[in-house]
Amino acid sequence: MKSAISQTVSNWVEEESHQKTLAPKVIRKNDPWQNMSEEEIEDRRELIRYYINKEFELLLLIPIQPRENDFWFSSYEEFQQSPFNTWDFQRDRKPFNKYGYRIKKILERVKDLAIRYSCLTSAEGREDTLRKYENLVSDEFRDKLMNLVDKYRILEDRDEKMLLKAKIAKESRHIMKCKEVWQKYSTWE
Known about the structure:
The protein is mainly α. It is built from 8 helices and no strands.
């Protein structure tokens, strides 16, 4: 009786040690990981990661300036459990303001040009940067402002003139904001 039980247990252990797969395994002729153990595959991947990162070593040394809306999750599970993935958060979110984002990016571009202008020492470089700033403001705001002013002069309807006045004031505010950013960053004292 004991020998039958031990034989049965031995058969169970032997069955568990052999993994049975029902699906056929695909073997590719050009598989770079063929006949390698998991440890060898992980070592090879680590070497590839090291080699790729070695080319970008100098870039990785540059500190990253944190952004106001920059967030990152380390795993998908962490994202699933985050408060940003709840209906309460999504329900209270306002729609994305494309125009506000565009204005913000234009002001960032003006700031970059102003900083570049303050760093340059050659007159030619400074003139070129100043021309880029003026073209940016002209393309984004001034041309539109001049068109609105021309329309305002032609119109006779008082209500439409009031609407155009508001648009003219808005474009003027954008130009003034650009000028303010330019004066703040283009000179260093």
